[in-house]
Amino acid sequence: MEYRLPDLASSVSEDALVPFLRPRDDLALDPGPLARLFGSRHEAAAEEVVCRAMEEISARLLQIEMFHAECRFADLARVARGLIAVADQIGLRGLALSASHVAVCSEGRDGVALGATLARLHRIADASLAEIWDLPHEPV
After folding, report:
1. What is the dihedral of CA 88, 93, 94, 98, to 10 degrees?
2. Any bridge partners for residue 29, and if so which?
3. What CA–CA distance (Å, rounded) separates 83 from 91?
4. Residue-level pLDDT at 139
5. How do the domains of the chain map onto residue ranges?
6. H or E element in which residue 4 lies
7. Looking at beta carbons, which pairs linking 57-60 to residues 24 or more positions away fall under 8 Å?
8. Tens digits of per-residue pLDDT, 68-108?
9. For residue 42, how many C-alpha atoms fall within 13 Å in the half-sphere facing its CB?
10. Which terminus of the chain, N or C, has less C-beta within 10 A?
């Protein structure tokens, strides 16, 4: 018995829409840490802490990419776990959660899951840092 697959190409019109996947990640910004930071320090000092945290996040993301390229999974997991604390410091809960998923996938050496979670980490990091950067320059 011979099985034949239907010819799907002939049943699709030329003007059919092509679907695009657009991941929607939850940034999960928690305003509490920023409110406490700006409430306990002068504005300039609080802004300095936020800027240092953003620089640290960027540096850790670069390290994560380097360790991924070099297949240094233990180092990647260590840096990702450090990223959690920095992200939590300024209320980036979504980034912290994503970094924890990257650490777990790296420790388990699950390459496919690691690739997917790294992509999500970078999407969330880009959006989160832009969100923090665009906050009003007044105490929260």
Report:
1. 50
2. 92
3. 12
4. 42
5. 28-133
6. none
7. 57/83, 57/86, 57/87, 57/92, 57/95, 57/125, 57/129, 58/129, 60/86
8. 999 999 999 999 999 999 999 999 999 999 999 999 999 99
9. 2
10. N
